[in-house]
């Protein structure tokens, strides 16, 4: 089954956007990814993963090779 990831991007909206995860990627909460956002691409943080078809969603465009955002900082942001 396809995974859907909720990605928090640095925009003035307090909700995460959902994207289809690449089938071969081992994403986890805190991972940095590149995602399409309107006419541009943005870097965001994977906030949550869940099972889902994701057929109507855009795909994660890139996985950044950066250390993940640790749980205490994600809890603080929440």
How would you portray this structure in words?
This protein has 78 residues and is mainly beta. The protein has a single domain (3-67), classed as GIY-YIG endonuclease. It has one helix and five strands; from the N terminus they run βββββα. It has a five-stranded antiparallel β-sheet with strand order 2-1-4-3-5, with no helix packed on it. Strand 1 and strand 2 (17-20) form a beta hairpin. The longest helix is centred in the last third of the chain and has 7 residues, at 71-77. It is globular, with a radius of gyration of 12 Å. The model has no long low-confidence stretch (mean pLDDT 92).
Our count of domains comes out at 1
Assembly type of the chains comes to single chain
Order of helices and strands: EEEEEH
Low-confidence stretches: none
Distance between the termini: 28 Å
Average pLDDT over all residues: 92
Largest sheet: 5 strands, antiparallel
Rg, please?
12 Å
The portion of residues forming beta strands comes to 35-45%
Which word captures the global form? globular
| Separate helix tally | 1
Strand order of the largest sheet: 2-1-4-3-5
Q: Which structural class do you get from the secondary structure elements? A: mainly beta
- CATH architecture annotation name: 3-Layer(aba) Sandwich
- In CATH terms, the superfamily is PriA, 3(prime) DNA-binding domain
CATH topology group: GIY-YIG endonuclease
Name of the level-1 CATH class = Alpha Beta
Number of separate strands? 5
Helical fraction equals under 10%
């Amino acid at each position: 089954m396809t995974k859907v990831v909720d990605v928090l991007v640095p925009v003035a909206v307090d909700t995460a956007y959902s994207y289809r995860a690449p089938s071969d990627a081992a994403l986890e909460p805190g991972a940095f990814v590149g995602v399409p956002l309107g006419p541009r691409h943005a870097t965001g943080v994977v906030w949550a993963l869940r099972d889902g078809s994701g057929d109507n969603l855009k795909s994660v465009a890139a996985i950044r090779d950066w250390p993940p955002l640790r749980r205490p900082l994600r809890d603080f942001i929440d």
